[in-house]
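User: I've been trying to design a sequence by hand for this structure and keep getting stuck. Would you show me what you'd pick, starting by listing the structure so we're on the same page?

Assistant: Good idea, let's start from the same input. This is the structure you sent:
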């Protein structure tokens, strides 16, 4: 996997400003801003893993979000047919394929120019399905879980006891030994372990809650789109 994508801490400024500018005419702009802030890293990292450059991956982020804005008006959530996660991945795959097709002919795979449009697209999607031996579905699932974890962590941080969260952050997130955390904060080792237990339990509850919010999120998105 592209290790550089892991170090990205904030969305590329140009991408964020450009996209938000293009969304100004959409209803509920703040909701789309939240959508972007939640999912841009997932989309961006997947695009890089799919073999795109930084600038191409940024374009995939923009075009994916814009596609969702357009498609959400006709989208109907049906768990029996598929999940939001799978639907979004399908859109990302097509946007990645678009970037491959935009590349100069010499940068494409041999024989692409001789193929029909349909054959070329099929070949591109097959490369995306497993670029360089990497299972893109597995990458998407991993990044999806990271996205949920980050969202849950943000919520828990706002809700939890500040002192408890600080102990959890130092011990569980920054991997400080229990004794070091206790000495630094002037608490007992038992208090550190208890704080970790409490915050971990809150995290599990919040992740489960986020997963269950999928249907209501799409219901709200459909309402906002009209």
């Amino acid at each position: 996997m592209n290790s550089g994508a892991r170090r990205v801490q904030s969305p590329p400024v140009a991408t964020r400003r450009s996209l938000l500018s293009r969304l100004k005419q959409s209803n509920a702009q703040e909701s789309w801003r939240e959508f972007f802030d939640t999912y841009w890293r997932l989309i961006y990292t997947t695009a890089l893993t799919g073999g795109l450059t930084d600038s191409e991956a940024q374009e995939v982020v923009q075009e994916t979000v814009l596609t969702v804005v357009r498609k959400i008006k006709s989208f109907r959530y049906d768990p029996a047919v598929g999940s939001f996660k799978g639907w979004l991945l399908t859109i990302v795959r097509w946007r990645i394929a678009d970037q491959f097709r935009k590349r100069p002919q010499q940068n494409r795979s041999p024989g692409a120019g001789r193929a029909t449009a349909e054959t070329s697209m099929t070949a591109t999607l097959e490369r995306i399905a497993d670029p360089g031996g990497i299972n893109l579905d597995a990458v998407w699932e991993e990044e999806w879980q990271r996205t949920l974890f980050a969202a849950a962590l943000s919520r828990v941080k706002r809700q939890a006891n500040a002192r408890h969260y600080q102990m959890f952050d130092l011990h569980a997130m920054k991997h400080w030994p229990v004794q070091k955390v206790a000495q630094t904060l002037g608490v007992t080792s038992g208090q550190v372990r208890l704080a970790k237990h409490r915050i971990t339990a809150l995290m599990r509850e919040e992740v489960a809650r986020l997963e269950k919010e999928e249907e209501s999120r799409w219901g709200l998105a459909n309402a906002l789109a009209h």
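That's my pick for every position. To get oriented when you compare it with your attempt: Confidence is low (pLDDT under 50) at residues 1-7, 110-117. Residues 112 and 119 are 9 Å apart (CA to CA).
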